[in-house]
Amino acid sequence: MADSVPTELIEEYRQRQRELAHAVIERSLTKAPTVIAAVDVHLRGSWGVAAAVAYTYPSLEEIDHHVATGRLTFPYIPGLLSYREAPLCLKAIRGLAQEPDLILADGQGRAHPRRAGIACHLGVELGLPTIGVAKSILVGRHDPLGEERGSVAPLVADDEVVGMAVRTRTGVTPVYVSVGHLITLDEAVDWTLRTTTRYRLPEPSRRAHRLAQVTARTLPTDAP
DNA sequence: GCGACAG
DNA sequence: ATCTTGTCGC
């Protein structure tokens, strides 16, 4: 199992995140994405399986995938998820044959206590546009949003708009979209909707999730 | 001091 | 997220 982290070190990791937040660039995409990737991690004991998948746009067909497996050393600590999952995610993404134009990460981007969620971490590390698409809120609040697909409501934390609650399917619980790197919030919302068809989450994200899950299932449960 | 807390 | 089967509902 992952070890605990000394409280004095926690603050060092937080400081690194504050620095990472300054490296994040929020600006319009330079190129219309034609290759969109998604990455997700499945946990199994102290092992993690990260799956990266690449899809074409607008046809939304899978063209590649890569899986990376490894032991998780860092524990799950709210706000410090990157240190636990990003290394494996980077390994999976770098295994793709072609560099994607946009990456969807499972978790927050700037909608983070220090504006440095895992999507920011991956984006800055790779120098590629990234979006955080989370299934629940880490920080911030938002007003109720319409029931129709496409309805949105700003996610506000510390009097700052850090993301957007987005209804990707009519009548379904919203997802929380935020900028990771090299994209604007409006574009992040737009591309999240463009890649979401029948379900709550974007197709590439769903595929990455299932691939990581089935791969992890073939691995033996570890010994404490 | 008391909750909240991505995956 | 994980540990886990069936079950209620569109």
TrEMBL record:
<dbReference type="GO" id="GO:0043737">
    <property type="term" value="F:deoxyribonuclease V activity"/>
</dbReference>
<protein>
    <recommendedName>
        <fullName>Endonuclease V</fullName>
        <ecNumber>3.1.21.7</ecNumber>
    </recommendedName>
</protein>
<keyword id="KW-0378">Hydrolase</keyword>
<keyword id="KW-0460">Magnesium</keyword>
<keyword id="KW-0255">Endonuclease</keyword>
<dbReference type="Pfam" id="PF04493">
    <property type="entry name" value="Endonuclease_5"/>
</dbReference>
<feature type="binding site">
    <location>
        <position position="40"/>
    </location>
    <ligand>
        <name>Mg(2+)</name>
    </ligand>
</feature>
<keyword id="KW-0963">Cytoplasm</keyword>
<dbReference type="InterPro" id="IPR007581">
    <property type="entry name" value="Endonuclease-V"/>
</dbReference>
<keyword id="KW-0540">Nuclease</keyword>
<dbReference type="GO" id="GO:0003727">
    <property type="term" value="F:single-stranded RNA binding"/>
</dbReference>
<keyword id="KW-0479">Metal-binding</keyword>
<comment type="function">
    <text>DNA repair enzyme involved in the repair of deaminated bases. Selectively cleaves double-stranded DNA at the second phosphodiester bond 3' to a deoxyinosine leaving behind the intact lesion on the nicked DNA.</text>
</comment>
<feature type="site" description="Interaction with target DNA">
    <location>
        <position position="76"/>
    </location>
</feature>
<dbReference type="GO" id="GO:0006281">
    <property type="term" value="P:DNA repair"/>
</dbReference>
<dbReference type="GO" id="GO:0005737">
    <property type="term" value="C:cytoplasm"/>
</dbReference>
<comment type="similarity">
    <text>Belongs to the endonuclease V family.</text>
</comment>
<dbReference type="GO" id="GO:0000287">
    <property type="term" value="F:magnesium ion binding"/>
</dbReference>
<feature type="binding site">
    <location>
        <position position="106"/>
    </location>
    <ligand>
        <name>Mg(2+)</name>
    </ligand>
</feature>
<keyword id="KW-0227">DNA damage</keyword>
<dbReference type="GO" id="GO:0016891">
    <property type="term" value="F:RNA endonuclease activity producing 5'-phosphomonoesters, hydrolytic mechanism"/>
</dbReference>
<keyword id="KW-0234">DNA repair</keyword>
